[in-house]
Amino acid sequence: MLFFLRPLIHLLCLSPALWLSFVLYRDDASLGADPIKEIQHFLGFTAISILLAVFLLRSLIILWQQPSLAILHRPLGSWAIFYALLHLLSYLLLELGGDLPLFFHEISRRTYLILGLLSLLILCIVPISLIPFIHRILGKNWLTMHKLVYFSLIFAVIHYFLATKSIELMPVVYSILTAVLLITILYQKFRR
């Protein structure tokens, strides 16, 4: 079963990038009047959706008592980082034209950008801590480093909520889902 799940995860996570590539190649109007914003939002939405899937998987592993499913964390986490980096790059390169001083100026003025960047930095720290010699250096602190991912999810959801600038359905749904998942994970942890 797990033999098929891993390739399936990769295929499912690759499909949004393939869809976006197809739409960009066709150059049709399906991205709306502001295609750059739509690309940014699509990539950000995909990143946060996959990150939520990581936490959902964590809950299911505990609920179903299937620790063997934990091997799916790494591919899901890698895809979440991939889309989060594309989300950032689309903002930096497409929206701001690669202007780094403007990028830092914008970040200093907008809370949701600070939270998004913090979320991405935390996400990037986790795979770096998996490098064997860094893992050895961190010792017992390695697990603490991985627990920072909870903050990454929280920051990402707040970033998403604030970036919409008005109350919309999906940010509210993702906020509620995040709260439920985190409460469930904490409950399962303390129950053991």
UniProtKB/TrEMBL annotation:
GO terms under biological process: protein repair
MF terms in GO: electron transfer activity; FMN binding; heme binding; metal ion binding; oxidoreductase activity, acting on diphenols and related substances as donors
Major location (coarse): membrane
Membrane-spanning ranges: 42-64, 76-94, 114-135, 147-163, 169-187
Cellular compartment(s): Cell inner membrane; Membrane
GO cellular component, one term: plasma membrane
Coiled-coil region: none
Residue ranges constituting the Ferric oxidoreductase domain according to the UniProt record: 43-157
Cofactor or coenzyme needed: FMN; heme b
Keyword Secreted: no
Cofactor: how bound: Binds 1 FMN per subunit. Binds 1 heme b (iron(II)-protoporphyrin IX) group per subunit.
Description of how the protein assembles with itself and partners: Heterodimer of a catalytic subunit (MsrP) and a heme-binding subunit (MsrQ).
Family named by the database record: Belongs to the MsrQ family.
Known function: Part of the MsrPQ system that repairs oxidized periplasmic proteins containing methionine sulfoxide residues (Met-O), using respiratory chain electrons. Thus protects these proteins from oxidative-stress damage caused by reactive species of oxygen and chlorine generated by the host defense mechanisms. MsrPQ is essential for the maintenance of envelope integrity under bleach stress, rescuing a wide series of structurally unrelated periplasmic proteins from methionine oxidation.
Protein name per Swiss-Prot or TrEMBL: Protein-methionine-sulfoxide reductase heme-binding subunit MsrQ
Annotated source species: Actinobacillus succinogenes (strain ATCC 55618 / DSM 22257 / CCUG 43843 / 130Z)
